[in-house]
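Data card: per-record layout.
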Amino acid sequence: MMAVLFSVDSLVTAKVSQTVPIFQYAVVSGALKWALSLFVNRLCKVTPLFGRRKDLRVLIPTGFVYGGFLVMLYGSLAFIPLVDAVGLFYLNPALCAIFGRLAFKDPLGPSSIVGLALVLFGVGLINQSSFLDAGKDVTWDLARIVGTVLGFGAALFAALAFSATRGLGDRVSPGVISTWAFQFQTGLALPPMLANYPAPLVVISDAVTICLILLSAVLACAGEIFACRACQRIPVGLATSIEATQLVWGLLWSVLFLEHKATWHQGLGIVLTIGGVFCIGLDGSIKRHLKRVFRRRSIEGSDELFVPETVEGGSCIKHSLTTANT
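The structure for this 326-residue chain is written out next.
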């Protein structure tokens, strides 16, 4: 679900950035997502809205790296194609698996290592294919170099953010983490926007553009909450590898709506990426880890991992949001 939400959000971002400067869009969408996350927290009776005081020393830097990777990801879209930006960003599952293993002793068996290698190779093929697309006139000019650096930076910051979310565990609601993420996204994107970089500010008056920005805010807010919850509940390498299937959707949207010419490199890359995710999911050490999690949560009476349930006062999503801060 989160992969589909993020892929549509990337498409909307690419469309809107054709008429709205990317950092102006990041500020506007960040403010909207911040307001939406506060509304969701309020609706689900999450208290306090910005987290408990004792968790702020972790929440603030976590929000900073979240906001940082979102701004860098948006910024990369101003310099390189959507598929390239998304492809570079999804180098983060390998980093997440390493961070998870070192910091939290997450399982990392042979099947996971093979799967991560397939994901990385698949992402590389998808990214390389645009360089070889149609004519061989793609050169490493300044714009491509800046976009590539921003893409790699977004991957590194995303890995740090997802790993920090894993460390926070159930004691902090995913809605609270998202609120801090969007707050920092807005703040970090504000200076380049005020500096009229990469283009002067525009008046957003077109009804279609306004609707697209609102749609993007809703999708990204929901996707971020789902992503945070996944990182809290399963090994972070597995969660981000599943999210990497956004590449499939991103390529589909690029072909259908952005007139991108798909190549056989991209087809092979997508097959390898999906195959890598399956290898990670089939890792016996991860299965044993998840069984232990299920057993422990069953004994403790906690809500199960991604198992729909009805609780007094609301749905399973509301339960997931509220139990973390109660």
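Known properties of this structure: Residues 201 and 302 are 49 Å apart (CA to CA). The two ends are 26 Å apart (CA to CA).

See the next section for split statistics.
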